[in-house]
Design brief:
Helix content is 40%, strand content 14%. The chain has 239 residues and is α+β, with helices and mostly antiparallel strands.
Length: 239
């Protein structure tokens, strides 16, 4: 199928699916997309399947209304509206991840906010917003972002942040490239684990907003270093 996208972008999207599974961010659920580098009004995402099994043949395209464009008539994830509405609202965003990474979940259902605890997670900013789906869907939803209205509500709460938590339903991470968004998703999970452990020991000295910005800028200069390590790990496992 001709996706009208750079083949290297498709290759990176496939390997990103595998990296996120291998690093414990995705499992049988969750998804990553990338904005089409040749058509910013569309994005690339896998058909509805387990991320660890994705190949280049499984990639299809969607528009910013969440319509699937696939000459084989395949379906993608129900929650494609997470991606479509964030791309619509954030022209700076080139890649989006939705995951249920386990260490992050408690911060979306308690009063304890996820905040950057180390220099690898400065992209979290002062604190991470939490999307409460009840405000948009009432008390009886299945917590899934299954239509444009819910996608728009999530995008509004994300605002200009790099990460937003979905109460009882994981998180969404955005970035200016596949490499950056993968980095952020992995270190969001890492920060959540570290913050939970530090909270057992005593009061936490979090990064200041200025430190968070400076460390985030610094790490963006070195995204290729961890990417190549993560890529080598999945290749060694035969993905």
């Amino acid at each position: 199928m001709n996706l009208n996208a750079n083949p290297s972008v498709i290759d990176d999207l496939v390997i990103a699916n595998h990296i996120l599974v291998n690093e414990g961010v995705l499992d049988g659920f969750g998804h990553i997309s990338v904005r089409n580098d040749r058509d910013p009004g569309r994005f690339l995402i896998a058909r509805s399947m387990a991320p660890g099994l994705v190949t280049s043949d499984d990639i299809l395209t969607c528009d910013l209304d969440g319509n699937v464009h696939d000459d084989q008539g395949r379906k993608t994830y129900v929650e494609r509206f997470i991606h479509s509405e964030i791309y619509r609202c954030r022209p700076d965003v080139m890649a989006v991840i939705h995951s249920h990474s386990p260490a992050v979940i408690p911060f979306g259902v308690t009063g304890t906010r996820l905040r950057p605890i180390c220099h690898m997670s400065g992209f979290l900013g002062a604190q991470v917003p939490v999307f409460e789906i009840r405000h948009a869907a009432g008390e009886n939803s299945d917590l899934l972002i299954r239509n444009q209205a819910l996608g728009q509500a999530l995008a509004r709460d994300l605002g200009n942040s790099a990460v937003a938590l979905l109460r009882g339903h994981g998180n969404v991470v955005v970035g200016f490239s596949i490499q950056q968004v993968v980095f952020r998703a992995i270190y969001t999970e890492s920060n959540a684990r570290l913050q939970s452990e530090a909270m057992r020991l005593g009061e936490i000295n979090y990064l200041t907003p200025e430190e968070a910005q400076s460390t985030s800028d610094m790490n963006d200069e070195h995204l290729g270093r961890p990417w190549e390590v993560w890529k080598r790990r999945v290749q060694a496992r035969g993905y």
